[in-house]
Every structure is written in structure tokens, then in C-alpha cells.
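Explain this one:

_____
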Amino acid sequence: MSVSSISNASSSAAWQASGRAGVGRLSPEEQRVVDKLSQRDKEVRAHEQAHLSAAGGLATSGASYTYQTGPDGRRYAVGGEVGINVSPGRTPEDTLARAQQIQAAALAPADPSGADRQIAAQAARMAATARIEMARQGSSGATGVATSAAEGSGAESGASTAAAASSRAEAYQRIGGMQSPAGGGIDTYA
């Protein structure tokens, strides 16, 4: 270690110590800024904790924060994000359960951000698509019996059934390509 790096390290430590020691010597304006930052830090941490608690097993990461340094030299969280897996499930039933949990996680904080509301809307669309697919699967069992009984009614009936099945499969696959506006995270930046 060179002498200059030691002196830089000690002057940095002295600056930080003087910043901490000077907490009592903040101007009234600086104290207002510290109070605002402290309040924002509490709000952001509570917001992200609400997302994390509601996300359960769909959380892909803990909360990550964006910080701002206050006049007192301390860092305060001013934004945050929790990673959430927003991919559909293997079945429509699994997708519906995931969508409901994603929506609950997005709207868990007392004051959801705009990005949180976008994620919730995406989850609502995912749930609607899953419900439609579940209804179609339920009715396709009954339709299959009716189609078997009415066999021989013509190739048009078979072609329309195949086309309907194909469009249902394509619609369900589309929800797999849906992406959240913030890359799968629920954040407080909006």
C-alpha cells in the first residue's frame, strides 16, 4: 500500500466521521432533507416488503434498493424493486393461480405505483386467458362426445373444430410471451 492511498483512505474516513459527527450540526434545511429522506426510506422498505411477503414462491429475488446520500452522509432508500416470476404455469389452472398471486403481490402495498398497477393488469389478462382456456377445455370434453355422436356430419365440422383448437392453443401460448414493463419486477419508481 502506498503512502498516498493511506492518506486518501484516512481522509475519506475522516470525512465520513465528520459527516456522522456533524449530524447535530445540520442546518434546518439539511435536517428537513434528512427527515424527508428518512421517511421515504421507511415507505420504500415497507412497500417492497409488502410485495415480497405477498409474492411467496414467485419472488425471484429479495428487494433491491436505489439509494440517495443525505446531507448527514447516510444512504437512504428512495426506490426499490422485487423480482417476480410472471411466466404462465404449465396448465391453465396453474396459470390462474400464478396470475392471482402476481396480482396480489403487485397490489399488496398500501399505495401501489404505476408500474405495480401495470403488472397487476398484466396478471389480470393472464388470469382471464387461463379462465377462457379452462372453460374451453371443460366444454371440449362435452363437445367431443357430441362430435363423436354426430360423426359423419361432414368435413367442415372437423375443420372448424381443428381451427378452434389451434386458435385456443395459440392464444394460450401468447400469454407465455407476455413480459412485464419493468422486466418482471415490481417497483416503486413509477
The helical segments are 3-21, 28-55, 92-106, 114-149, 155-174. The mean pLDDT is 76. Residues 20 and 74 are 8 Å apart (CA to CA). The chain has one domain: 27-187.
